[in-house]
Specification:
- The chain has 345 residues and is of the alpha/beta class.
- 46% of the residues lie in helices and 14% in strands.
- Strands 1, 2, 3, 4, 5, 6, 7 and 8 form an eight-stranded parallel β-sheet that branches. Strands 9-10-11 form a three-stranded antiparallel β-sheet, with no helix packed on it.
- Helix 3 packs parallel to helix 4, helix 11 packs across helix 15 and helix 14 runs antiparallel to helix 15.
Length: 345
């Protein structure tokens, strides 16, 4: 708690990530994570690991054991971070390459080349990440962009020759249809046009943005620019992995900007919108013939308040609103991924 994005990284996040050098710790946290995600209503997840190759292998192993559809990447950093969380470019790229060979395309798993964000990556590291992406064009790219105004200014200072934040990623070949950028709270019109032109996508993480005071995501403007948007929890800075909470917070963030999202629009962002953002809408995100059987079974009497709210629903819109605003992990009685109830163990 306390502090904006950059203060929070140094005070909390970097010390927490350093613990993942311990494989036993990584195993414990990975196992807990992949138990918690489906319990909270998530069947597909795009995840940053840490810089540690061993820990990232463990995260893949635990995702596979849990039966979750997961896209995971080893975080790349070689500057503006504690020394124990920086890695030489050659080692970082070789570790990523080995992980791609082992895990990408293996059953429900995929790999994401994951520069943390431009400020913690040198030109050399970003260039190497772009070259790795060119070697493996079907892998994902996962990073952050324009989360905080101080961060945006910092990027201008670190990359003075670039037009804007998004252009940094374009320069190094990191934009494209399988690129997912978290946040995008403070994007210019030029940046939105570039994201649209390259087919890049944004993960809107309202709970995290509110918690860190990063700003209000301009959903109407981003979607009008033709940039696909899905919902994320960003449970590093977000306070819960629960997607009901993500939908509810997305509603509030737009409401104070004069845009009142319907329950259908919110449900779309949390389901098919997320699948499209991850380029997975051909296999998941909606219940259609030919897609995998990924779905939740919800108990609308899981709590007395939820039962009272949903029993009085006068329409499907009203029912969905009740679930979004009153639901939580207690409502998830089963979570199926490719026809298997992953909550059953």
């Amino acid at each position: 708690y306390g502090g904006d994005l950059l203060e929070w990284l140094n005070r909390y996040t970097f010390p927490t990530e350093a613990k993942f050098a311990d494989s036993d710790h990584a195993r414990q946290i990975a196992r807990e994570l992949f138990e918690e995600l489906p319990r909270s209503g998530t069947t597909s997840a795009l995840i940053f690991s840490t810089i540690h190759t061993d820990a990232t292998n463990i995260f893949f192993e635990e995702a596979e054991r849990a039966g979750i559809r997961a896209i995971i990447g080893k975080t790349l950093m070689d500057r503006n971070a504690p020394a124990n969380l920086q890695e030489p470019v050659a080692a970082a790229i070789e570790g990523s390459r080995e992980l791609i060979r082992r895990w990408h395309g293996r059953d429900l798993l995929a790999y994401a080349i994951s520069p943390r964000f431009a400020p913690t990556c040198s030109d050399e590291l970003l260039a190497a990440a772009g070259e790795l992406r060119a070697e493996h064009p079907d892998v994902y790219v996962h990073t952050h962009v324009s989360e905080n105004v101080v961060e945006v200014q910092w990027v201008r200072e670190l990359f003075p020759s670039e037009r804007d934040y998004v252009s940094v990623y374009e320069r190094f070949g990191l934009l494209g249809r399988r690129t997912v950028l978290a946040h995008g709270v403070h994007l210019s019109d030029d940046e939105l046009r570039l994201l649209h032109t390259t087919g890049s996508r944004i993960s809107h993480c309202p709970n995290s943005n509110l918690f860190l005071g990063s700003g209000l995501f301009p959903l109407r403007r981003v979607m009008a620019a033709g940039v696909p948007v899905g919902l994320g929890s960003d449970i590093g800075a977000g306070t819960t992995p629960c997607m009901f909470n993500a939908m509810a917070d997305a509603y509030k963030v737009q409401q104070v900007q004069g845009l009142s999202l319907s329950p259908f629009e919110l449900w779309y962002l949390g389901t098919l919108g997320g699948a499209k953002t991850l380029s997975l809408d051909d296999v998941t995100g909606s219940l259609e013939p030919g897609k995998d059987a990924d779905f939740l079974i919800l108990d609308l009497e899981a709590t007395s308040l939820l039962a009272r709210r949903t029993k009085g629903a006068e329409s499907i819109h009203d029912l969905l609103a009740g679930i979004i605003f009153m639901g939580d992990d207690r409502a998830v009685s089963a979570a199926y991924v490719r026809g298997r109830n992953v909550l059953a163990g």
